[in-house]
Design brief:
Layout: H1 7-19, H2 42-49, H3 53-60, H4 68-77, H5 82-91, H6 110-118, E1 124-127, E2 133-136, H7 138-143, H8 157-163, H9 165-170, H10 174-191, H11 196-208, H12 210-217, E3 226-233, E4 237-247, E5 255-260, H13 266-282
Antiparallel strand pairs: 1-2, 1-5, 3-4, 4-5
Helix pairs in contact: 2-3, 2-4, 4-5, 8-10, 11-12
Length: 283
């Protein structure tokens, strides 16, 4: 038993959780008339989890410590969501055995797309796994490049930084910005080392660019959540913009990247001019 485990607290939680469920919730037959138990019975939970009633009873009483496989079957039997599963594993002192949280797909939520559209004078991107560019607003296209003209499998922030001449030229401090982006990808790679798409991206860039090979080998990590970026745009000249990123709360790993300028500054005026120019182009 580890110092962090609390069998009695785990037992109390299991008991409380089964009281919240009905047989119908778990696909069991309709209960007989006159049933005195409001939630599931112990034997019903044991049946759903494929363990003995005696063992489950001892779990609720805090007399035994649950193994990781038993926690997995109990989580399924008691219909635990991800937060509840994490809580149960922590109570059992098995947090290290918690199944890896499934990351949501690369589709962007409608609410996020509406937010992008409403940020009319502010460049904004939705970055997914591996810094893939999943969505953007008109202001971002005006600042960076015509993302629509780029094949979807090449629409990656890091790939564009290293291989797209227009995007590379835009960054006045390219060495700094590119190195920080590599560090952000390195941090993501540590969290999901088995991602084959990430391995392909790293392999492609390592072959194509010496700087990428050098910086990747340095193992520098950075969340790149905020900072200041300097751009040199062909139409409007120099811009100094604050760059902030916010993680999506849905567990997808997606981030909203927003670039802003202080109102009244030359950079703010340049952004307004740039977005107006882009709007004229699209009409």
């Amino acid at each position: 038993m580890t110092p962090d485990s609390d069998p009695r607290a785990l037992g109390a939680y299991l008991k409380a959780r089964r009281a919240q469920l009905t047989p119908q919730d778990c696909g069991l037959p309709e209960p007989e008339a006159g049933r005195r138990v409001a939630g599931l019975r112990r034997e019903e939970v044991a049946h759903l989890a494929a363990i003995s009633v005696d063992y489950y009873t001892r779990l609720e009483q805090g007399r035994v410590r649950a193994s990781a496989p038993v926690l997995t079957t109990l989580a399924r039997a008691l219909r635990l969501d991800e937060d509840q599963q994490r809580y149960v594993y922590e109570l059992a002192g098995r947090a290290d055995a918690l199944p890896r949280r499934r990351r949501a797909g690369q589709s962007v939520r409608p609410a996020m797309r509406r937010l992008l559209a409403q940020l009319t004078g502010t460049p904004a991107l939705v970055l997914g796994k591996r810094l893939d560019i999943l969505a953007w607003n008109q202001a971002a296209a005006a600042l960076f490049t015509d993302f629509e003209a780029i094949p979807p499998d090449e629409r990656n922030y890091l790939r564009l930084l290293f291989t797209n001449p227009e995007v590379r030229e835009l960054h006045e401090k390219w060495n700094h910005d590119a190195r920080e982006a590599v560090a952000a990808l390195r941090m993501e790679a540590a969290a999901d080392p088995g991602d084959p798409a990430l391995a392909r991206l790293v392999g492609d860039l390592a072959i194509q660019d010496r700087d990428f090979r050098t910086w990747w080998a340095e193992h520098h990590v950075n969340s790149a959540s905020y900072g200041t970026k300097s751009y040199r745009h062909r139409q409007v000249g120099r811009l100094t913009l604050d760059c902030d990123t916010w993680a999506s709360p849905d567990g997808s790993g997606q981030r909203l990247m927003v670039l802003t300028a202080e109102p009244g500054t030359p950079s703010h005026d340049a952004l307004l001019l740039l977005t107006a120019w882009k709007a004229e182009q699209t009409h």
